[in-house]
Design a protein that fits this description.
single chain; 100 residues; alpha+beta; Alpha-Beta Plaits; 4-stranded antiparallel β-sheet; 30% helix
Length: 100
Amino acid sequence: MSRVIFSIQYDIFPEKRNDYISVIKELKNLVKGDGLNSYSVYEFKGKPNSFEEIYIYDSKEAWENSDENIDERVDILMTKLSDMIKEKSTKYSTLFELNS
């Protein structure tokens, strides 16, 4: 079974930084699901207000089903988060682990 890493990179508006950190702290406590191994958020070194969210799933099936496991509070927080992100700064990537 191959794991999947899904990541989202983006820049936020500097004046929204404190609100962003509050939303991320709450999200980290809520984002759970079957097959979600971990959820982490990182800030790029030397690039303030540029972040990357990294989701690691146990399998391709868990990743494909991840949208089905979102509860109402997570959905609200994701909407708040999207209002803090600068337009055209978002990049997505999905990596599938090679089986040996």
